[in-house]
Amino acid sequence: xxxxxxxxxxxxxxxxxxxxxxxxxxxxxxxxxxxxxxxxxxxxxxxxxxxxxxxxxxxxxxxxxxxxxxxxxxxxxxxxxxxxxxxxxxxxxxxxxxxxxxxxxxxxxxxxxxxxxxxxxxxxxxxxxxxxxxxxxxxxxxxxxxxxxxxxxxxxxxxxxxxxxxxxxxxxxxxxxxxxxxxxxxxxxxxxxxxxxxxxxxxxxxxxxxxxxxxxxxxxxxxxxxxxxxxxxxxxxxxxxxxxxxxxxxxxxxxxxxxxxxxxxxxxxxxxxxxxxxxxxxxxxxxxxxxxxxxxxxxxxxxxxxxxxxxxxxxxxxxxxxxxxxxxxxxxxxxxxxxxxxxxxxxxxxxxxxxxxxxxxxxxxxxxxxxxxxxxxxxxxxxxxxxxxxxxxxxxxxxxxxxxxxxxxxxxxxxxxxxxxxxxxxxxxxxxxxxxxxxxxxxxxxxxxxxxxxxxxxxxxxxxxxxxxxxxxxxxx
Amino acid sequence: xxxxxxxxxxxxxxxxxxxxxxxxxxxxxxxxxxxxxxxxxxxxxxxxxxxxxxxxxxxxxxxxxxxxxxxxxxxxxxxxxxxxxxxxxxxxxxxxxxxxxxxxxxxxxxxxxxxxxxxxxxxxxxxxxxxxxxxxxxxxxxxxxxxxxxxxxxxxxxxxxxxxxxxxxxxxxxxxxxxxxxxxxxxxxxxxxxxxxxxxxxxxxxxxxxxxxxxxxxxxxxxxxxxxxxxxxxxxxxx
Lengths: 477, 239
Known about the structure:
The complex is a heterodimer.
Chain A: H1 26-39, H2 57-75, H3 83-97, E1 109-113, E2 120-122, E3 127-131, H4 132-137, H5 141-156, H6 159-186, H7 188-203, H8 205-234, H9 241-249, H10 265-282, H11 292-312, H12 316-329, H13 334-347, H14 356-359, H15 361-373, H16 376-385, H17 389-410, H18 416-428, H19 431-444, H20 452-470
Parallel strand pairs in A: 1-3
Antiparallel strand pairs in A: 2-3
Chain B: H1 2-21, E1 24-31, H2 33-36, E2 44-47, E3 51-58, E4 61-64, H3 66-86, E5 90-91, H4 98-103, H5 105-125, E6 154-165, H6 167-176, E7 183-192, E8 198-207, H7 214-229, H8 233-238
Parallel strand pairs in B: 2-5, 2-6, 3-6
Antiparallel strand pairs in B: 1-8, 3-4, 6-7, 7-8
């Protein structure tokens, strides 16, 4: 479940083309629209239960592929191994499954994936993955249960198989349209308009396909929302957690590389309203949803990992929001304070929260351009040239320093704040202070600390710099 | 006359058919001025686990080829390592193979971090590869967190992406757009093991058969390109 409700496999997410309308004439748009409408199935084509589903060779091939994909995720180290979080997510999933036997060829397993995006997805073999980014966003067990219940429905109602079958049919249609376009170009006098229109359709073929896929998903998502909320209620969770989860999914701190129009606010708001209505009908206000503290107890290791992944992936705003949640929960825990300080340091000239200009359509397009055009360093340099960029950087650095110092106070023998402060001072050009902090870090860090070499190299480089700066010029006393 | 025309057609058909059956590889590379000027050398490298993604493109859409991708990744890894060894480069990545990382989760997470960092930089680099010549790209000194960076002067990232066309798709292609072939791109990037700066970036475009015998598809071109970039002790001696 992501903002669109479309479960996108993380490694392939960047391949989903951005949803931008191309073509300027009404005719082209009309043709695209007609193709889109013609290829959309009605919601009634969804099966009501798994019992009606019959496996075909196409499904079995997909199942084989999915089993292999499952293995690959584990093999590549993308499945997080923290035992507490893994057991917790599995137990919530099992609670939702109850005593019901799984459908044919399904073995339910619930896992956490090392991925900063806010997403979860289900494979038809019963593997359900929740991204660490989504785990970090949620606030209690009820919200986690609503995500898992939604994904369980995708499996039990065989959505992936149905999606695959219809997608294959549509691909054939697009291929035939391409053929028509080619043929029409041979006979320009007879079929210029048709040729141009179809050529336009095929040049945005992927868009068309994705659009229809998003269309299918909408029906399936509704189905998953409806069955999911009922499953939650039956498992003893407060169904009101589901609309609250949708509210959380609306968080827009970062530019997301794949933006679809089904993810736009009205759709999400619509789902929020629908599930709210369904929850009201079901009742269950007093049912379990768990406290934030219990949730964080079980998931804190995943959240910390995710903050570090966020920081490495130009998502410092998200990292800051999540680390703030941790410091609000345990204000004296030095490790969390350091994460907050790191977030401010990495933010540098960026504001902690996006401005309204950044959130609106034009701002998102600008952000997208910057994301693909500029490296992280270049983006920072550009921000510094803008009004208030330099002041923002100073303010963020000031906060970072404050938090590093308070982490040192909370745990005087903890090495990490010294490393972070060293990085900060070096960024500010205070090389002597940086060297001092690096040395303190090396003195406190365990001998096999993974970034010992990195810090040692920085000291050598700074030493060289200061020596060359203080050395007398040749031929001068 | 009739015979000659027939002969010409037969010849044309043979030439075209063989061109379609053979794998054709083109290469392009970009070098950081630091490497070109000999300020840094690449003689000891840590090769990161190769990432190869193959997709089957058929009339009914694309399908993953997970198993084949894994085999292709292993092939690409060995082609690049062999190419490097041939020009006298020492491979220092013992314990960094995909199989090794499976048994060492801590190291695997570190490798993943660096790989993700690379992927993030590759977003711009793939679009403006020529900016490697302007020293524009860096992964930062985080690369030093990998144990193999201590005894290496460069890290090597290998990324391959291929679309394997099914028979039906190829046949359809002939009818619609002319000859269609399976295509693949292979990126080999050398990154300074100390500073994290991208030192060289080589891109190989391949049309034809590549997924079964990567050595035949890339071997020669790779060796040639590595020498051109200035990798290895001999290149260093020249500088």
